Amino acid sequence: MCKNCEYKRKLGELKKERLRSYLINKSMQERIEAELKECKDAEKDDINDRLRKQRESCRKTCMNIIMEIERLRNEDEKNVLFNRYILGKKWEEICVQFSMSWRNIHYIHKRALENYRCDNKKTRIPD
Residue 127's pLDDT is what? Predict the structure, then answer.
């Protein structure tokens, strides 16, 4: 495999990992909300502060990912990424929802990943 192809493959995987982190951060945010409800004692202020900071970090990550998707110009690309990574839908569900073939949805997904720009520094591959 040529260096350019290998680079594109790695970059695509990092972008997918970034997009997948939305659901991880969203569930962490919900777990932290539940923990904050349980920890209401004044003596647990340090725990509450730490949990609030974690919750805010998760919230910011989620909002950044949504904004990154919204920057795409093509509506089909936005829809595929949003349904797959934000709503967590399966490929079959997306195909049915948009009345498109599996192949066409994956083509749009590939194009969307090529056009997707991450703000996260972790998605940069060193030379």
Answer: 40
